[in-house]
Design a protein that fits this description.
10 strands, 118 residues, mainly beta, globular, six-stranded mixed sheet, single chain, four-stranded antiparallel sheet, 0% helix
Length: 118
Amino acid sequence: VQLVESGGGVVQPGGSLRLSCAASGFIFGSRDMSWVRQAPGKGPERVSVISSDGVQTDYLDSVKGRFTISRDNAKNTLYLQMNRLKPEDTAVYYCTTGWTPTMGVGSWGQGTQVTVSS
Protein backbone atom coordinates (compact mmCIF):
# COMPACT_ATOMS: atom_id res chain seq x y z
CA VAL A 1 0.00 0.00 0.00
CA GLN A 2 1.30 3.43 -0.91
CA LEU A 3 -0.30 6.80 -0.23
CA VAL A 4 1.38 9.96 -1.48
CA GLU A 5 0.02 13.35 -0.47
CA SER A 6 0.70 16.57 -2.32
CA GLY A 7 -0.62 20.10 -2.61
CA GLY A 8 0.42 21.57 0.71
CA GLY A 9 2.14 24.91 1.04
CA VAL A 10 2.08 28.33 2.64
CA VAL A 11 -1.06 30.39 2.18
CA GLN A 12 -2.46 33.56 3.70
CA PRO A 13 -5.57 33.45 5.89
CA GLY A 14 -8.63 33.28 3.71
CA GLY A 15 -6.77 31.48 0.96
CA SER A 16 -7.33 28.06 -0.56
CA LEU A 17 -5.39 24.88 -1.18
CA ARG A 18 -6.27 21.57 -2.75
CA LEU A 19 -4.61 18.48 -1.36
CA SER A 20 -4.31 15.28 -3.34
CA CYS A 21 -3.50 11.75 -2.26
CA ALA A 22 -2.42 9.25 -4.89
CA ALA A 23 -3.11 5.68 -3.81
CA SER A 24 -1.66 2.43 -5.06
CA GLY A 25 -1.17 -1.14 -3.98
CA PHE A 26 -4.77 -1.82 -3.00
CA ILE A 27 -8.27 -1.60 -4.43
CA PHE A 28 -8.82 2.09 -3.78
CA GLY A 29 -12.49 2.03 -4.72
CA SER A 30 -13.24 -0.52 -2.01
CA ARG A 31 -11.95 1.52 0.93
CA ASP A 32 -13.26 4.42 2.92
CA MET A 33 -10.62 7.16 3.04
CA SER A 34 -9.78 9.85 5.56
CA TRP A 35 -7.76 13.01 5.90
CA VAL A 36 -6.13 13.42 9.29
CA ARG A 37 -4.08 16.40 10.45
CA GLN A 38 -1.63 16.93 13.24
CA ALA A 39 -0.53 20.35 14.40
CA PRO A 40 2.68 20.88 16.39
CA GLY A 41 2.21 19.86 19.99
CA LYS A 42 -1.28 18.55 19.39
CA GLY A 43 -2.81 15.18 18.83
CA PRO A 44 -4.05 14.00 15.46
CA GLU A 45 -7.61 14.78 14.43
CA ARG A 46 -9.67 13.40 11.60
CA VAL A 47 -10.53 16.30 9.35
CA SER A 48 -12.78 14.47 6.94
CA VAL A 49 -13.77 11.03 5.73
CA ILE A 50 -15.45 9.71 2.61
CA SER A 51 -17.06 6.36 1.93
CA SER A 52 -15.67 4.02 -0.70
CA ASP A 53 -18.34 5.04 -3.20
CA GLY A 54 -18.07 8.72 -2.41
CA VAL A 55 -21.66 9.01 -1.23
CA GLN A 56 -21.11 9.53 2.50
CA THR A 57 -18.85 12.16 3.97
CA ASP A 58 -18.18 13.57 7.41
CA TYR A 59 -16.23 16.59 8.61
CA LEU A 60 -14.63 17.97 11.73
CA ASP A 61 -16.95 20.69 13.02
CA SER A 62 -14.30 23.37 12.68
CA VAL A 63 -13.90 22.76 8.93
CA LYS A 64 -17.53 22.26 7.95
CA GLY A 65 -18.52 24.61 5.17
CA ARG A 66 -14.88 25.34 4.32
CA PHE A 67 -13.40 21.96 3.35
CA THR A 68 -14.69 19.47 0.81
CA ILE A 69 -13.50 15.90 0.50
CA SER A 70 -13.85 14.03 -2.77
CA ARG A 71 -12.40 11.09 -4.60
CA ASP A 72 -11.88 9.83 -8.11
CA ASN A 73 -11.89 6.05 -8.00
CA ALA A 74 -10.92 5.83 -11.66
CA LYS A 75 -7.73 7.77 -10.86
CA ASN A 76 -7.14 6.20 -7.43
CA THR A 77 -6.95 9.68 -5.97
CA LEU A 78 -8.38 11.35 -2.87
CA TYR A 79 -8.78 15.12 -2.63
CA LEU A 80 -9.34 17.77 0.02
CA GLN A 81 -10.38 21.21 -1.15
CA MET A 82 -9.66 23.70 1.60
CA ASN A 83 -11.16 27.18 1.37
CA ARG A 84 -11.18 30.15 3.72
CA LEU A 85 -8.15 28.77 5.50
CA LYS A 86 -7.39 29.91 9.02
CA PRO A 87 -4.12 29.93 10.98
CA GLU A 88 -5.51 27.13 13.15
CA ASP A 89 -5.65 24.90 10.06
CA THR A 90 -1.85 24.83 10.07
CA ALA A 91 -0.76 21.21 10.38
CA VAL A 92 0.67 18.24 8.57
CA TYR A 93 -2.14 16.61 6.62
CA TYR A 94 -2.17 12.87 6.05
CA CYS A 95 -4.38 10.61 4.02
CA THR A 96 -5.17 7.16 5.27
CA THR A 97 -7.57 4.30 4.81
CA GLY A 98 -10.61 3.68 6.91
CA TRP A 99 -13.55 5.56 8.46
CA THR A 100 -12.05 5.79 11.96
CA PRO A 101 -8.30 5.80 11.48
CA THR A 102 -5.75 5.50 14.27
CA MET A 103 -2.41 7.15 13.68
CA GLY A 104 0.31 4.58 13.33
CA VAL A 105 -2.12 1.80 12.56
CA GLY A 106 -2.72 0.78 8.99
CA SER A 107 -1.48 2.62 5.93
CA TRP A 108 -0.52 6.29 6.00
CA GLY A 109 1.12 8.71 3.62
CA GLN A 110 4.15 10.81 4.48
CA GLY A 111 2.01 13.89 4.97
CA THR A 112 1.99 17.32 3.40
CA GLN A 113 2.56 20.53 5.36
CA VAL A 114 -0.09 23.22 5.29
CA THR A 115 0.87 26.56 6.80
CA VAL A 116 -1.63 29.39 7.05
CA SER A 117 0.10 32.61 7.94
CA SER A 118 0.14 36.25 7.00
